[in-house]
Write a structure and sequence with these properties.
- By secondary structure, the chain is of the alpha+beta class.
- It has two domains: 36 residues, no CATH class; 74 residues, 2-Layer Sandwich (Translation Initiation Factor Eif1).
- It is built from two helices and eleven strands.
Length: 135
């Protein structure tokens, strides 16, 4: 069973169909993985790096949320003026400092457990104008 000749190919690889029904290159043996948004090689992609930072008031807010977590609390850090890579690196360091897990979702760092006081002090030591929010 071979490759169906009705599909366009790039150096022997089939092209995927996007949401709009048009064909797009998913992988090229010449360039490797391709960016789904701009179609350029992932290493040379500029569309994900061109993400604008959210305009904020310059204050980093550290709060606690339990919504949608079956009563389990997480510490939420918002308002950081960092790109996605910077957020991921800072989250990694903060998780290590707290000795717990966490994640970065939609520009917000979530750290498992209630570590508001520790995180506010850590962020202030790093030069951010941080304040504790909530009760």
């Amino acid at each position: 069973m071979g490759i169906d000749s009705s599909f366009p190919t790039v150096k022997g690889r089939m092209m995927g169909a996007g949401k709009d029904g048009e064909s797009r290159v998913v992988y090229s043996t010449e360039h490797g993985r391709m960016c789904p948004a701009c179609g350029k090689p992932a290493a040379k992609c500029r569309c994900r790096k061109a993400v604008e930072l959210p305009a904020g008031d310059g204050i980093v807010r550290v709060g606690r949320e339990t919504k949608g977590r079956k009563g389990k609390g997480v510490t939420v850090i918002t308002g950081l003026p960092l790109d996605p890579d910077g957020l991921r690196d800072l989250a990694k360091e903060l998780k290590r400092r707290c000795g717990t897990g966490g994640t970065v979702k939609e520009g917000v760092i979530q750290i498992q457990g209630d570590h508001r006081d520790l995180l506010v002090e850590e962020l202030k030591a790093r030069g951010y104008a941080a304040k504790r929010t909530g009760g």
